[in-house]
Every structure is written in structure tokens, then in C-alpha cells.
Design goal:
The chain folds into 3 domains: 54 residues, Orthogonal Bundle (434 Repressor (Amino-terminal Domain)), CATH 1.10.260; 134 residues, Rossmann fold (3-Layer(aba) Sandwich); 132 residues, 3-Layer(aba) Sandwich (Rossmann fold), CATH 3.40.50. The protein is 43% helix and 18% strand. 36% of the residues are buried. The model has no long low-confidence stretch (mean pLDDT 91).
Length: 338
């Protein structure tokens, strides 16, 4: 934006004619005054550019793409984790000077090409792809997004984008090691019946932890018990009636944890007297009756924060090297292990 002589005159409290002489290199103005006028002009031009950039930035959007397969693992699940995550994205986008735009995409129904085109619009500064439920072939549909993008909760291993993931392997090592120290050697892993990246990595982590601990591992030590709380409850009631109890169950996510504890309550099985339990991911205390579940706590709030830091850097300057950031998990002791 061009700086007007009147603005300079007003700012320096001198006449417009003096400013005009100085800007046009004409005599009648002292060298000191001429320099002050030129310096002030540069200041106003700089402020004008900064203001224009700020206005443009405010018009731009950080686009959050929640791409799902209607599995209800995070979005639409029985325990709402997504609201807290969105709050972090919104807060960090505002700090960066952008607004937030959230798009939910059912990859089985919605036109993904249209979403790609929206992401490439001038109004979009960068993209966060929340990929909890999607598979590699779904990700291939997004390869034409040209804006800076960071992926969360999945790793497609093509090194085109930064990825922010949970260290599920280390999480299961924590669980198995904790049980081993308490003389629980006969351990069964209760799995959701959905195959997504996080769950698959937890199962791999369980297998590795069992083998590394010198414990027997066979595929039947991983038992799928359902995806909803009610489904898990019914399946586990049948399992508990027909099978002997192991030393401990590790439960893959909150639906499995809540459904299993409900089934044990119905069947009169005492925790931890009859069996020890560890859940992966915390569950609300009201959902576990009088059992304070020992859990592997997954940090859902700081992962989006780290994703936004990486995106901010990518928007400023594309990094030739991409990073995969793995978030640690913590074991939170309850009273569900002997």
C-alpha cells in the first residue's frame, strides 16, 4: 500500500509541502529533515506490509481433516475424546493468527477429490490430517494436497509429511512389565475387533513384550471381543462362563475395558482378587464401578499441540526432512492389579 505524503506530514507534524519537496528530491529542505521524512516513510511502509500480511493471515484457515470409515473409534465414539482435541487445535490456530476449519470425511461415502480441492485453495494455510481410522489406500487419495500437511495417529511410511503418533509398542511393554513384577505370567490381551493402526501396533507391542519377557506367546493370547461396550459386555460374559481365568487381562481400549468390567460385575468375578486388569487409555471412574483401573495413559492433548508446532514450521518453510514424533505413555496405578 502506497504511503501518502499527508500521512507522513501528520505523523511528523510538518507541512505537506515540506514532505513533497523531500520525497521528490527538490531543494528547500535541510538534509536532516529530508532523512527524517525518508526514514518515517520506510516505517509506514513496513507497518503497512505487516498489516496487510496480518489481514491475509486472518483470512487463512488451518484445515483439520477428520477422515474416517465410520468406525466410531474417536469421532462419534462412546467416550468423547475429540472435543478436547479440537479445543487444542482451535487455541493454537488462533495463536498463529489463523482461523480453524474442520471437515469430517467419510472415505466410504464422501467425494474425497472435492476435499483435496478445498485444501489446495488460497484461503488454506495448512492441513492437519487426523488419520486414526484410515488405511493406506485412503491416504493415497490425498496425495494431491499440495499445502503443508501433518498427519496424526497413523504412519504411512512414505516420509512425505511429519507424523505424530502414539508409541503403542512401548505402552504395551509398560503393561506387561508391570504385570510380570506382580507375578502375573498368564496374560491374555483383549482386543477390539477393528483393525486400525493404533490397535495393530498395540497387538504387535503385546507380542514383543511377551516374547522379550520370556513368556509363552501364541496367537490365541489375543482375543477379539468386540467394538462397542455392549458388544464387549455380551462377548465377555460368554467367555468368562466358558473359560478359566488367566492371571491378567490387558484391554486394548476404553470400550474393551468398560465392557469387560461390566461383564465381570455381572458374573461375580472380583477385581483384583480373582483376576488383574490393565486398560490401555483411561476411562472415567463412573464407568468402572468400585474398580479404580490401572491404566496406560495416552496423552490426547499434547499430540495435537506438537502437530501444530510442526505445521507452523512447515508453513513458514518447507522442511526437506520429515519427522515422526512418538508420544510416550504413562502407567497410572489403580487397584485392579494384585
Amino acid at each position: 500500500m502506497k504511503v501518502k505524503a499527508a500521512d507522513i506530514a501528520r505523523g511528523l507534524q510538518i507541512s505537506k509541502a515540506t514532505v513533497s519537496l523531500a520525497l521528490n528530491g527538490k531543494p528547500g529542505v535541510s538534509e536532516q529533515t529530508r532523512q527524517e521524512i525518508l526514514d518515517y516513510k520506510r516505517q509506514l511502509e513496513s507497518r503497512s506490509r505487516e498489516k496487510a500480511a496480518s489481514v491475509m493471515k486472518e483470512k487463512q484457515v488451518i484445515k483439520i481433516i477428520f477422515m474416517h470409515r465410520d468406525l466410531k473409534v474417536a469421532y462419534g465414539s462412546e467416550l468423547d475424546l475429540w472435543t478436547d482435541v479440537l479445543a487444542v487445535y482451535d487455541r493454537e490456530a488462533k495463536k498463529m493468527g489463523y482461523s480453524l476449519g474442520v471437515t469430517y470425511v467419510n472415505v466410504l461415502k464422501d467425494p474425497v477429490e472435492q476435499i483435496v480441492n478445498e485444501c489446495n485453495m488460497d484461503s488454506v494455510a495448512g492441513v492437519i490430517l487426523c488419520a486414526t481410522e484410515i488405511q493406506k489406500q485412503d491416504y493415497e487419495l490425498l496425495k494431491n494436497i499440495h499445502k503443508p500437511m501433518v498427519i496424526t495417529d497413523n504412519d504411512f511410511e512414505d516420509n512425505s509429511h511429519h507424523r505424530v503418533c502414539i508409541d503403542n509398542t512401548a505402552a504395551l511393554k509398560l503393561a506387561v512389565d508391570y504385570l510380570r513384577k506382580r507375578n502375573c505370567n498368564d496374560i491374555i490381551y483383549l482386543a477390539n475387533d477393528i483393525d486400525i493402526y493404533n490397535f495393530e501396533q498395540r497387538r504387535v507391542g503385546f507380542k514383543q513384550a511377551m516374547i522379550n519377557s520370556g513368556l509363552e506367546f501364541k496367537p490365541d493370547r489375543i482375543i477379539p471381543v468386540g467394538r462397542t461396550i455392549d458388544h464387549v459386555n455380551e462377548r465377555m460374559k460368554m467367555y468368562l462362563r466358558e473359560n478359566r481365568l488367566p492371571d491378567a487381562f490387558i484391554m486394548e481400549n476404553f470400550q474393551v475395558s468398560i465392557g469387560t468390567i461390566k461383564a465381570m460385575k455381572t458374573e461375580g468375578i472380583l477385581i483384583p482378587k480373582d483376576i488383574s486388569l490393565i486398560g490401555v487409555d483411561e476411562v472415567p471412574s463412573y464407568a468402572t464401578y468400585d474398580c479404580k483401573l490401572t491404566t496406560i495413559k495416552i496423552d490426547h492433548v499434547n499430540r495435537p499441540y506438537i502437530a501444530m508446532l510442526l505445521l507452523k514450521r512447515e508453513i513458514k518453510e518447507r522442511m526437506p526432512t520429515k519427522f515422526k514424533v512418538m508420544s510416550d505413555c504413562l502407567l497410572i496405578e489403580g487397584n485392579s492389579v494384585k
